[in-house]
TrEMBL record:
InterPro entries: GCS, Gln_synth/guanido_kin_cat_dom
EC number: 6.3.2.2
Pathway: Sulfur metabolism; glutathione biosynthesis; glutathione from L-cysteine and L-glutamate: step 1/2
Region (Disordered): 320-343
Biased composition (Basic and acidic residues): 329-343
Cellular component GO terms, alphabetical: glutamate-cysteine ligase complex
Keywords per UniProt: ATP-binding, Glutathione biosynthesis, Ligase, Nucleotide-binding
Name listed for the protein in its UniProt record: Glutamate--cysteine ligase
Source organism (scientific name): Malassezia vespertilionis
Class of the enzyme per the UniProt entry, highest EC level: ligase
């Protein structure tokens, strides 16, 4: 969550009247930045991760694991630098914590961004672990900050899933399953939730295919949906077709925005380089979703998908019926000043729709781009090239969702609020981040598809690997361009159950820029994409290793980096299973599991306890993490001065 303005948010009916104003001034704000920073160059390679946690409360007597709603109190403690541990640290190492959408979520980032030197890459895991230990030290005895992507029983109706227990409902989400009190208490978040629902005209509809086990009824018609409730007009939606048979139905923003992820932001030397890295990263996004898949259970049911992406996409889908194509456009009000009512193909949380680098092959930009034409024309008139103008005009087809009355009229030369309002609610697989006004921060690119991993070893490995790839792209001038329509197809494949073993992904053959262009695209397994298959498809890992060879690192440093890379390779070829697969197996082998797809409170408790033990290095799972994980974890904890168990 980028922007957290303070003030009085406007009701949707009022906000919508100001949408054109926000868009107009938002683009003027972008133009201010562009004029100031378009020629900015020579910024150093800097990068940083964002790690999201959910705070779980374990009750070892009742055998329950529930979500703590103490976000506010926890953040007040974690954000104040009063602890001796904190004060003793240099600024670069001071853990930084931020709020997130769920009132059980926190996010951490490094005290200062890292460089891409081997020294810095090899600090990342310890830095992540320091943040986790710091958070743990400030939580209550049975609270644990867990980097789990989706809470398996979020929205289950047979037993509480929050601590304290709450009743579902509330005027923001009007959910049958989630209480509004589960949402971050900052007024921005309930307002965002309500305005998405109001703009859309119904509650959001999320249907994830259920995993049909041997005792799961066919068709599966969820008996736990409280159809009888009659609090809000929307309560009847589930019975009237919103809840699909054979699916796990969810009806609120919290189901998606309440998931945790791992994001990495890197700075480029200048705007053009940032656009190049953005493009080269885009075809990689589905591969990293598949390899980090960690979200196979929703509302207490095992799903037939392994990852969160479609859930979160649907959870903030604010498009009207006409925009989604389920009602005639003639009934649709005009949303944009110069654009007729139009269909919108995707949710505001979805995959990238256009390449940005001026050298991108036009035929690979094969997605029809809905645009706010007044925005595009203004940018073109200001001398901005078509690709960037169209990218922004595409982001600006969306309405601003939360407008604070105190911040409607701002100085466009000193504020980015209106630009950020639209930019930060376009949640795509990649984000192109312009420099903040007047600061020391340059053009950046954010890599957003990954699911958060259980341990900091894994989170560090994936972050480091992605950062190395961003260097490799520039160093070897790689050419990963492929049609964006196929990247989208890959996004769907990436979420399939056990994608590593069951799916092939479209990918570019011949990665060198001057390579022959016959048969540009092949279909590959993740193992082939990471390890390479033949001369035409060299593989990401060999490419990273070639880059490291050229750096001629000290042997110990190289060995440490190779450990992370080898781990990524073992996930890619299935030697080590994904978190999603581990969770499925755990449920299936639990003595109380009835092979009916139901994840009971007890199974949930045992699973989260076990995950916690694995993270702490108390339980070795050699087909999930490398065999030396536990020992390494303990050594790192000793380095940090964490008392042994
Ligand atoms: P958002 O939530 O908007 O994506 P955050 O502020 O939560 O952004 O995270 C941004 C990440 O970018 C952090 O890890 C931070 O360390 C990192 N970062 C900060 N400054 C720079 C910079 N100049 N270049 C690259 N990354 C940076
Ligand atoms: Mg976040
Ligand atoms: Mg963040
Ligand atoms: Mg981010």
């Amino acid at each position: 969550m980028g922007l957290l303005s303070l003030g009085t948010p406007l009701e949707w009916a009022e906000a919508t009247k100001l949408a054109a104003h926000i868009r107009k001034h938002g683009i003027d704000q972008f133009l201010s930045v562009w004029r100031a920073a378009k020629d900015r160059s020579g910024d150093p390679v800097l990068w940083g991760d964002e790690l999201e946690y959910m705070v779980v409360v374990f009750d070892p007597v009742q055998h329950t694991a529930r979500l703590s709603l103490r976000q506010g109190e926890i953040l007040r403690v974690l954000q104040s630098a009063h602890s001796p541990l904190f004060a003793a640290l240099p600024a670069a190492q001071r853990p930084t914590f931020h709020p997130e959408y769920g009132r059980y979520m926190i996010e951490s980032t490094p005290g200062e961004p890292f460089s891409a030197s081997a020294d810095d890459l090899l600090r990342v895991e310890l830095d992540m672990l320091r943040r986790r230990c710091f958070a743990k030290q400030h939580l209550r005895e049975h609270e644990v900050p867990m980097t789990v992507t989706s809470f398996p029983r979020l929205g289950a109706t047979d037993a509480p899933f929050t601590d304290p227990a709450l009743t579902a409902g509330g005027d923001a989400a009007r959910s049958l399953f989630l209480p509004d009190d589960l949402i971050n208490q900052h007024v921005r978040f309930p307002t965002l939730t309500a305005n998405i629902r109001k703009r859309r005209g119904t509650k959001v509809r999320i249907n994830v295919p259920i995993f049909h086990d041997t005792h799961t009824p066919r068709p599966f018609v969820d008996p736990t949906i409280p159809h009888a409730r009659n609090t809000f007009p929307e309560d009847s939606e589930a019975a009237l077709g919103a809840a699909l048979p054979d699916h796990i139905y969810m009806d609120a923003m919290g189901f998606g925005m309440g998931c945790n992820c791992l994001q990495v932001t890197f700075q480029a030397a200048n705007a053009t380089e940032a656009r190049r890295v953005y493009d080269q990263c885009t075809p990689l996004t589905p591969l990293f979703l598949a390899i980090t898949a960690a979200a196979p259970i929703y509302r207490g049911y095992v799903a037939d998908v392994d990852a969160r992406w479609n859930v979160i996409s649907a959870s903030v889908d604010d498009r009207t019926n006409a925009e989604r194509g389920t009602a005639p456009l003639r009934d649709e009000p005009k949303h944009n000043a110069d654009t007729a009512p139009r269909r919108l193909r995707k949710s505001r949380y979805d995959s990238v729709d256009s390449y940005l680098y001026p050298g991108a092959p036009p035929e690979d930009n094969d997605m029809p781009l809905e645009m706010d034409l007044s925005v595009r024309d203004k940018l073109l008139a200001a001398g901005i090239d078509p690709l960037l103008a169209e990218h922004l005009a595409h982001l600006f087809v969306r309405d601003p969702l939360v407008i604070f009355s105190e911040l409607v009229d701002v100085d466009n030369t000193t504020s980015m609020d209106h630009f950020e309002n639209i930019q930060s609610t376009n949640w795509q697989t990649m984000r192109f981040k312009p420099p903040p006004l007047g600061g020391h921060i340059g053009w950046r690119v954010e890599f957003r598809p990954m699911e958060v991993q259980l341990t900091d070893f894994e989170n560090a490995a994936f972050s480091i690997f992605v950062v190395l790839l961003s260097r490799v792209m520039l160093h070897f001038n790689t050419d990963f361009y492929m049609p964006l329509s196929l990247v989208d197809e890959n996004m769907q494949r990436a979420q399939q159950r056990d994608a590593i073993h069951t799916q092939r992904f479209y990918f570019r053959r011949h990665w060198a820029p001057d390579a022959e262009s016959t048969e540009r695209i092949g279909e590959y397994t993740l193992a082939e994409l990471f390890w390479g298959r033949d001369a035409a498809m060299p593989g990401l890992i060999p490419l990273v290793r070639r880059y490291l060879d050229e750096l001629a690192l000290a042997p110990e440093q190289r060995a440490e980096l190779d450990r992370y890379i080898a781990f990524i390779g073992e996930r890619a070829n299935g030697t080590l299973m994904t978190t999603a697969t581990w969770m499925r197996r755990f449920v299936h082998s639990h003595p109380q599991y009835k092979h009916d797809s139901v994840v009971s409170e007890k199974i949930n408790y045992d699973m989260l306890c076990t995950l916690n033990k694995i993270e702490r290095g108390e339980l070795a799972v050699p087909d999930f993490l490398p065999p030396w994980y536990a020992e390494r974890h303990r050594t790192m904890e000793r380095t940090l001065g964490v008392p042994s168990l």
